[in-house]
């Protein structure tokens, strides 16, 4: 069947009254599609996103989900780094187990905040920024009435070891496996969520809860106490003492080596002029 069709190529119209109905695909058609894909300005590359309004890429840093106020802090920090370094940055939340693996594979520009020394722990593609942006606290929570019995971690472990007292911690926590190493397994209770930990602590099924990051745990406890204003068991839970304090550093994938000095200088200036301290006060 012959038909009259109109062909538009790059803004120019061509009319034909005797062009056969085109077949579904031809080499020319595929060439045109390929050309359009190549010149399309929004196409992203692994680990970064094209910013249509600027020539530079937006660097994307991964951080674990469900870290509430700490994630809000990181968003503000990386926005300020972007302004000072002229390297646009943004935070994306992904499951914790994927953060390091995906960052090391280059699926993201880097990871937002992790402990020092990842390069020697199997993540050789991640380059540590030399300036710490936060120090994470691991805290023991307990009922305020129990606090006089336990002055510090060693006192808690010693007392629990000689009794049937139970200490809760997050299942799979590497930090807990180190800190609570001296506590017999019979005295340790792996938990699936901080909410579960606080409920068990409130009902006195555990005597203490080893939690981290501290700022996230304190924010969650406050939210639960506001949600259940008449539950005195929750309102009796308090942070008893800090067990450890560990500096966290941003990491960037090595393919972005050329922008690391500018990124690092921006973060250093934020530490020197008190910007990091000011942003930290907003999340306490």
Describe the protein's architecture and organization.
The protein has 284 residues and is of the alpha/beta class. The protein has 2 domains: 48-134 and 248-281, Periplasmic binding protein-like II (D-Maltodextrin-Binding Protein, domain 2), CATH 3.40.190; 136-245, Periplasmic binding protein-like II (D-Maltodextrin-Binding Protein, domain 2, 3-Layer(aba) Sandwich), CATH 3.40.190.10. It has helices spanning 27-39, 68-85, 96-105, 153-161, 174-179, 194-202, 214-227, 232-235, 260-272, 275-281, and strands spanning 2-9, 12-20, 48-50, 57-64, 89-94, 110-114, 126-128, 134-143, 167-170, 188-191, 208-211, 237-253. The strands form 2 sheets. Strands 3, 4, 5, 6, 7, 8, 9, 10, 11 and 12 form a 10-stranded mixed sheet that branches. α2 (68-85) packs across α9. The protein is elongated and about 60 Å long. It starts with a strand and ends with a helix. Residues 1-22, 35-46 and 49-55 have low confidence and may be disordered.
